[in-house]
Design goal:
2 copies of one chain form a homodimer.
Chain A lengths: L4 E5 L6 E3 L5 E8 L10 E8 L3 E2 L7 E8 L3 E5 L2 E2 L9 E4 L4 E5 L4 E8 L4 E9 L3 E6 L3 E6 L5 E4 L2 E2 L8 E5 L10 E6 L5 E9 L3
Antiparallel strand pairs in A: 1-17, 2-3, 3-4, 4-11, 5-10, 6-9, 6-11, 7-8, 7-10, 12-19, 13-18, 14-17, 14-19, 15-16, 15-18
């Protein structure tokens, strides 16, 4: 029985790219196996936003943004003002939308999932407060982006590499293998959990 | 844009069936649209177990069991003794396995998901302690079985029918409709959440 592919991405290794409009920079956290920052079916990234301005278009893609650091942002999506977003409030919007971002109290850092809904079904949740968290999932891709202190993760009772702050753990099932089957995940952090859990399924499998 | 199909199943309406071996009774909570207690691709049920004994076989199906009431159980699966299960500890096993159940301190009531892994990918999680819980999901089937006090559920900001204790809320997406797209779910209970969340996706869609 083949094990899933488990990778730990370290925050210090994330490449950083300036935006074309000069309003910020993006660090790529992870993307689908075989993908790149230019061509992906899913991608996680961190952005540092230094000034008000527009977001890039990602045609045909779905996005979920969350403020990691800073006071917050106010988004205007296709001309409609949205409720202000403070830290850890995930907000979903279309990559086709015209989005303007206003900083509510100085620069922020945010965390982004951008994916193709034609290729994947997604689930995203911020986990806070609890010091223990358990679930069963058959997701073919499980991503844990840690925004807190050292996180311990078990999969079917086996401890996985421990992500530090802003590290990301990636568990990728292999088609037809154990990674494609239901597994029990358990998360623990003595200081309380502060992590974003993303689960992805192929649309066709 | 079509809305998903939302149903609230009331605990007082669950049909109850005695087991063939006389060791307990089963109440059917819900099953897949078009399914029945004899032929389903997923089913939720509550069982009252009055004495030690064997579980029925469900060939080709995956099971997840959780003790709702009572001290707990010790399962032996295909001859292997498993760790004792107390309340709210979900345990996954194959419906093909030979399972013997020993009561650790008198009769128990348990909650069961039984499904076909060829038809669905599943996710199951018990939600405890927190009084607020938010996630984004594109699951085509979302089930909330409430084991606590009155639960309030919002989907994309719209309040859904409120499940009382042992009621079950069922949100079923319609293919190609909004129910098949990413949605934000928010759960709240002033007394603290005590509910089981089940999300199912079709294997082929």
């Amino acid at each position: 029985m083949k094990h899933p592919d488990v990778r730990l991405y370290r925050a210090q290794d994330y490449p950083r790219m300036p935006w074309r409009n000069g309003g910020g920079t993006t660090q790529e956290v992870a993307c689908n196996p075989g993908g790149s920052s230019a061509a992906f079916t899913w991608r996680l990234s961190i952005a540092d936003v230094a000034q008000d301005g527009g977001f890039s278009l990602f045609a045909g893609l779905q996005r979920i943004i969350t403020v990691l650091e800073g006071t917050g942002i106010a988004l205007t999506v296709d001309g409609l003002a949205q409720a202000p977003l403070g830290p850890r409030q995930a907000y979903a919007f279309s990559g086709d939308a015209q989005v303007d971002c206003r900083l509510l109290g100085g620069p922020i850092r945010d965390f982004n999932l951008i994916y193709s809904p034609g290729h994947h079904r997604a689930r995203l949740q911020w986990i806070g407060a609890a010091d223990n968290w358990t679930f069963h999932s058959a997701a073919s891709t499980v991503l844990l982006f840690n925004a807190g202190q050292a996180l311990t993760v078990w999969r079917n009772g086996e401890q996985l590499p421990a992500p530090s702050r802003y590290d990301c753990l990636h568990v990728e099932g292999r088609a037809g293998s154990a990674g494609d089957e239901l597994a029990e995940y358990r998360l623990a952090c003595v200081a309380g959990l502060d992590a974003c859990l993303i689960e992805l399924q192929p649309r066709r499998a």
